[in-house]
Amino acid sequence: PIEKAWWKEAVVYQIYPASFLDSNGDGLGDIPGIISKIPYIKSLGVDTIWLSPIFASPQKDMGYDVADYRSIHAPYGTVADVQKLIDELHANNVRILMDLVVNHTSDQHAWFKESRASRSSSKRDWYIWRDPKYDEQGNRKEPNNWKSIFGGSAWAYDEPTGQYYLALFLPSQPDLNWENADMREEAYNDMRFWLDRGVDGFRIDSMNLMSKHPNLPDGKVVTDEPYQSGAEFFASGPKMHDYIREMRTKVFDNYEVMSVGELGFTKDEQSVSQYVAKGRHELNMLFTGDIVDMDFGANGKYERDDFHPRKIRKITNMWQGAMPKFDGWNTVYLDNHDSGRSLSRYASDAPEHRSTAAKMLATYMMSLSGTPFLLAGQEIGMANLAKNYGAEAYIDVEGKNYYNEVLQTRGGDTSKMADVLREMQLKSRDHGRLPMQWDDSPNAGFTTADSKPWMTINKDYVDWNVASQIDDPESIMAYWKRMIALRKDYSDLLVYGSYIPLPETLTGEMVLGYERYSKTTGQRALVLLNFSDQEQIVVAKEYAEYTDSSILVSNQEVEESVGSEVALRPFGAVIILKH
Ligand code: TEU
């Protein structure tokens, strides 16, 4: 049986600090705002929060460009405020994970300022500097053809010292050189700074980009564009596991740390297993990106590729099946601050379906093995900005860069951008960062009525907000609370039980179905999730043992006992428990 651990039973709530609650009317969320909502957070039944970066930063990438890990972005508050947050969370038995952004820093970080000061700086080698290349005409060229994740070359030229530095995200986010042991020690000291203050763990940003191929070779040419991905040479490089183990033994093992690695580009079971398999002594769990990328195109996020339930079946079956094979653990999530809301992309935010669909997705997340992470707002069914918002509503750098790149190739003609806008309406990172909808007052109770929120507030807040759901037993929020409580009550089954996929031939292509089984308690459950806006009938006679079983939970009216077939209404979900 799977070994039990608190971090396996945790239910995590992601808070995007800018968008949670503004306590001082400057239009930006802040730490005191979060502190004031601890009773609310606790009332949901979640027991851990993950806070996206709150550190001092010029905010070129919303804090994922850290200028100083030991101070706090002033509009969010102070280190003392964060200490108060940690202490009050702990007093309420809620743990806190911080975002650890150590693949890169801001170009305003003291380390980088020193590094760029001269070629002979003692910190020159803390970042990745290379000489230019020259073409036959003698034109200066980047050291290789890698493409930045946010567009353009992954290299930025530094005129005064005549070298390029590597920046896989924005040019203002230079990549650290993890080969340098002094740099690593300083990063560990920053981690200790927060662990000593009581932080319970980290979500490690862009974790597997920390080790690059030492020769930084050109990426495989797959498009006719000037720059190519190159990810095969900068993701999960040869020293990746050495670095994680060092971090683990030198830092994490001296505390009780929950570690969650963000794993991009690496997708195969074998490589993934290396990070979390028992006995490897590396990380507790991972975010593999595939679950939030289901509607991304093969050559880029904003290329069109529609969601189909088959995709979630494949990914869910794959990871639920893989982890037990190597005694590993994983996360369960559908939303984060880097994507559109799953409700709008994988289910439906249409008024007639919204509530049922949000509950169906909650049923999915709470009935799988792994540690669930929900994004604030998911518990009230927050959705993407509607289709009638224009390009100006989107402010995130990733989407904007892409939009402008394409706009340029179309001669700057904004009337030709409908296809790109369609994709942004689904996938832009802005949707995951919408201010929390607390009530139906002006500015949704996120900030004072007369202040200007840092980003668009979704107009649908008038109908979809915390205040309107908190006392309604039929609300999405009530359903989430019930599901979280059920997960705790049935942890042997829902957290630790084995996962048995149902073939599409049994459920039909639009329904995701699986069984959970606990050897310890002998309990068995059948989970059926309708990912379509049509009624779906699942013939349960193959599952004879479930007839006369009871419904553990459902988002629709169901018979007391189950007959030979189950009729799932649009986006219907049901968990049937065998006694
Ligand atoms: O994201 C890492 C990453 O690879 C992203 O490019 C992600 O794939 C993309 O945003 C999906 O649209 C992390 C953070 O989560 C993200 O917010 C940061 O911008 C990025 O690292 C750089 O720190």
From TrEMBL:
The keyword S-adenosyl-L-methionine does not apply. One of its GO terms (molecular function) is glucan 1,4-alpha-maltotriohydrolase activity. The keyword Flavoprotein does not apply. InterPro entries: GH (IPR017853), GH13_cat_dom (IPR006047), Glyco_hydro_b (IPR013780), O16G_dom_2 (IPR045857). GO terms for biological process: maltose catabolic process; sucrose catabolic process. SMART domains: Aamy. Keywords: Maltose metabolism. Residues 14-433 form the Glycosyl hydrolase family 13 catalytic domain. It comes from the Eukaryota. PANTHER family: ALPHA-AMYLASE FAMILY MEMBER (PTHR10357), GLYCOSYL HYDROLASE FAMILY 13 CATALYTIC DOMAIN-CONTAINING PROTEIN (PTHR10357:SF232). Belongs to the glycosyl hydrolase 13 family. This is Alpha-amylase. It comes from Penicillium argentinense.
